[in-house]
Specification:
heterodimer, A: 342 residues, mainly alpha, MetI-like fold, 13 helices, 0% strand, B: 527 residues, alpha+beta, seven-stranded mixed beta sheet, six-stranded mixed beta sheet, 21 strands, 21% strand, membrane (chain A), transport (chain A), transmembrane (chain A)
Chain lengths: 342, 527
């Protein structure tokens, strides 16, 4: 187990380096350059050229014959290995600083969205499987179909309009109200306010979390419900379940204890995959809900061709996905004793 | 658990009642930097307007100059040297005095690439100086020749060539005067969220949560009187529909850049007041001289005559825009020629005939590029482009609509041969026609249509050198006639961006220049 972990982590490091190269080349291959994007309507060729020079974007990518160390990628990687991701071209803010404030925002939202998806998706899937072909089953299937097909930005605006403007129950967007201040510890506001014992701020943070979490969680909810249903149906048809029933075990023991635990394996896989997808879904949700997370930040950077921000954001997102995948793999072993890592 | 929930619910009710002194603005995004002189985006300037003062200000709601940190300014006879008399007893938020040294520090920092506190090695660009003032110290094209401290309250700026617009330029929101002490203290961090931007302005910087909000508090010792609210929160809300939702829900007090089609929805809400901001922009169609058809002047005239601009503006701006035949917005009508019709003639039959006379009785096929992003002057470019295409097809010109990513669009339009026809626009920085004509017809601005006339260049020079308004009006009238007849750029609209406020917000006078300080705004009976 120990050596497996070390091997996995080393592999992750290699993957990260590979990704740094890919994203470096990739962002520079997108037509449209940062100087022009920064200057906007003012971008004349002369102004853009002057700005490119000031920003060092006119230097060769990989190798400068005059001065081998003065090329963009070698400089980037050597800084990266020292933990320096550079600073945003437009804002001059170190990418690391922005990641530090924005990642917790996305993490909090993703956790809430996944929590929402599991809280409603799992029971819906279980109910649909146990009461197969009943009204419940049809309802769950229909809802999950709607959940998958509804565009996130539309759902987000709709939720915001209905619950904030019409009913006035919840705030329409943002992470906190205008009067609430939270001194960050982890950056997860609900947790931080709890740690600081500020229940009022915690309530405010939770209220702001509800709508974006529902919007972002709608697709994973639908997927979790569907996978749970089909996986549980599979398991329920297996011999050992029939045996358990024949032995006279009660309904609850058969379905929940014997069958569900085995049915959860594919669900865990899906949850792991969805954790990656959440980062993607966060782009729209964060934009609609003015959520200062990583999704809206990288999205903006892409339209501005802000290379250091895109690179830093992508490398970091890749790291997070790798870690989640590792956790998923480890949890297999916990769920299914037949799986062992060496 | 029950007690906890009850307490939480009670606290929530308390927290929704906001203090009367907090003014919340919904901006359409996040500021980029709070360092003056080093940004060009509207939201950064809006936030900076609260923290910094410029040497010269604008009379509320207009582009007319009024004293700010400089109480007066005067040129020598041929406008090659400007002397600014500074306001006395003004202090920066950090308690250090505002004086000639501070002004010289700021001006040379932006202009001199060798300035020790310019932090150019850290990627600082101060691009707006290159843009509006011709270049940096040592450049042949630089407008500024020298910045001199005359005494503690007087600064003189010598210019390389006559410029009567220098005070207008230096009054633009980019050029807020910052505390030299703070810049030296924070170093390259100055202007980022990790620093404390210090000006003399009506509000003092408190905090900046990137991607979310900037919080400011009133500068109680402000030289122009204490601001009417205690706190200003500027929130970044990118989505226009969501900004309207926030306004309706009462979580923000006022906002700008709503889409024109939401005007009715704003008017229907009794808690809201629609605010039409004064127009200070132009959205236009550029016709490329490199295109084989468009290099013919009669073809260009036929194109301008075939487009029903008035109908398009009525349809897509919901009454929040005007159409005329001038590059400068209506507030600068004094710069327009009386010989040019108020609007382009819309006459498809005559256009068709003109096209036939030019040798194209059956028309031709051409590309029209529309912007992929919304801008105040073109809030929804695609349907506007479709309407233009429909008008042109009526005289036989078949239009292929094209677009691409904004960053690429901006780059490709300047490549030769570039776009045949394309939509673009301009929002003014300062109240002089030079800013509008110069941006597109100036020596740096013309590679997008492959036409850069000597006559236009000369007129622009003359306009900048003219020292009286009458002399200026004469030059720009001539420029207006010349460019109108050349028909390379067809102005489609001067739009009034839609803003809205809660009915308890009083005293907001939006500036035509895009943003203004919020110190005169009060909240009357906000709950």
């Amino acid at each position: 187990m120990g050596s497996y972990l070390i091997r996995r982590l080393l592999r992750t490091l290699l993957v990260m380096l590979g990704i740094s190269l890919v994203v470096f080349v990739f962002v520079r291959s997108i037509p449209g350059d940062p100087a022009v994007a920064m200057l906007g309507e003012r971008a004349t060729p002369e102004a853009a050229a002057a700005l490119r020079e000031q920003l060092g974007l006119n230097k060769p990518w990989f190798f400068n014959p005059q001065n081998p160390l003065d090329a963009q990628y070698p400089k980037y990687v050597s800084a990266l290995l020292q933990g320096d991701l550079g600073a945003g071209i437009k804002s001059n803010i170190p990418v690391k600083d922005d990641l530090g404030t924005r990642f917790p925002a996305t993490a909090e939202l993703s956790i809430a969205a996944m929590g929402f998806a599991l809280l409603f998706g799992l029971p819906a899937g279980i109910l649909a499987a146990i009461r197969r072909n009943s009204v419940w089953d049809n309802l769950a299937t229909t809802i999950s179909l709607v959940g998958v097909s509804m565009p996130v930005f539309w759902l987000g605006l709709l939720l915001s309009y209905f619950f904030a403007v019409k009913l006035g129950w919840l705030p329409p967007s943002a992470r906190l109200g205008n009067e609430t201040q939270i001194e960050p510890i982890t950056g997860l506001y609900v947790l931080d306010s709890l740690l600081r014992g500020d229940l009022r701020a915690m309530w405010d943070a939770m209220r702001h979390l509800v709508l974006p979490a529902i919007a972002l969680g709608s697709i994973p909810l639908a997927i979790v419900a569907r996978i749970t249903r089909s996986s549980l149906l599979d398991v329920l048809g297996q011999d050992y379940v029939r045996t358990a029933r024949a032995k006279g075990l009660d309904f609850r023991a058969v379905n929940l204890k014997h069958a569900l635990r085995n049915a959860l394996l594919p669900v865990v896989t899906v949850v792991g995959l969805q954790a990656g997808a959440l980062l993607g879904g966060a782009v729209l949700t964060e934009t609609i809900f003015s959520w200062p997370g990583i999704g809206s930040w990288v999205y903006e950077a892409i339209s501005q061709r802000d290379y250091p921000v895109i690179q830093g954001g992508v490398i970091f997102a890749a790291l997070v996905v790798s870690i989640v995948n590792l956790l998923v793999d480890l949890s297999y072993a916990a769920l299914d004793p037949r799986i062992q890592y060496r | 658990m029950k007690t906890f929930l009850l307490t939480a619910a009670l606290l929530a009710t308390l927290s929704t009642a906001s203090a009367a002194g907090t003014l919340v603005y919904g901006a359409n995004g996040d500021p980029v930097s709070l360092e003056s002189g080093n940004i060009t985006d509207g939201i950064s300037i809006l936030v900076q307007h609260q923290i910094y003062d410029t040497l010269i200000g604008f009379k509320p709601g207009t582009a007319d100059l009024i004293p700010a940190l400089a109480t007066s300014w005067k040129a020598n006879a041929n406008a090659t040297s400007w002397t600014f008399t500074l306001r006395k007893n003004v202090k920066f938020h950090d308690g250090t005095p505002f004086n000639a040294d501070a002004v010289v520090f700021n001006l040379t920092r932006w202009w001199d690439k060798a300035h020790p506190y310019g932090f150019r090695a850290q990627g600082r660009t101060f691009e707006i100086v290159g843009d509006l003032l011709g270049g940096y110290k040592g450049d042949a094209t630089s407008v500024i020749k020298n910045v001199v401290k005359v005494n503690d309250n007087t600064v003189r700026v010598d210019l390389n060539k006559p410029s009567s617009v220098f005070p207008d330029v230096i009054a633009a929101g980019y050029f807020g005067i910052a505390s030299p002490t703070a810049i030296k203290k924070d170093g390259p961090k100055y202007g980022t969220p990790a620093s404390k931007p210090i000006g003399t302005g009506p509000f003092v910087f408190q905090s900046w949560r990137t991607g979310d909000r900037v919080t400011l508090s009133a500068n109680k010792g402000y030289w122009d009187g204490k601001p009417k609210v205690d706190t200003v929160v500027i929130r970044g809300i990118k989505d226009a529909a969501q900004r309207l939702n926030e306004l309706k829900a009462g979580t923000i007090d006022f906002t700008s850049d709503l889409t024109p089609d939401t005007l009715k929805s704003v008017q229907a809400d009794k808690n809201l007041v629609a605010v039409k901001k004064p127009s200070f922009n132009v959205g236009f169609l550029s016709l490329n001289n490199r295109n084989q058809y468009l290099k013919n002047q009669n073809v260009r005239k036929a194109v301008s005559m075939a487009i029903n601009k008035k109908a398009i503006v009525d349809a897509f701006w919901n009454g929040l825009g005007t159409s005329n035949a001038s590059f400068v917005p209506p507030v600068m009508n004094w710069a327009n020629s009386k010989n040019v019709p108020a609007d382009y003639k819309f006459d498809p039959a005559a256009a068709k005939k003109m096209l036939a006379d030019a040798g194209y009785p059956n028309g031709f096929s051409i590309d029209l590029w529309y912007m992929p992003v919304s801008r105040p002057y073109f809030p929804n470019p695609k349907p506007i482009a479709e309407a233009i295409a429909a008008d042109l097809s009526a005289i036989g010109i078949k239009v292929n609509l094209k677009t691409e990513d904004w960053a690429k669009y901006l780059e490709d339009r300047n490549k030769a041969p570039g776009f045949d026809m394309y939509m673009i626009g301009w929002t003014g920085d300062y109240g002089d026609p030079d800013n509008f004509y110069g941006a597109y017809y100036g020596p740096n601005g013309s590679s997008d249509i492959g036409w850069n006339s000597i006559t236009v260049q000369n007129l622009l020079e003359q306009g900048r050198a003219a020292t009286t308004k009458a002399a200026k009006a004469k030059v720009y009238a001539e420029l207006h006639e010349f460019t109108y007849n050349a028909t390379y750029r067809v102005p489609v609209v001067h739009s009034s961006p839609l803003a809205a406020q809660r009915s308890y917000v009083k005293g907001w006078i939006p500036s035509p220049l895009g943003s203004e300080a919020f110190n005169d705004i009060s909240l009357v009976g906000k709950k």
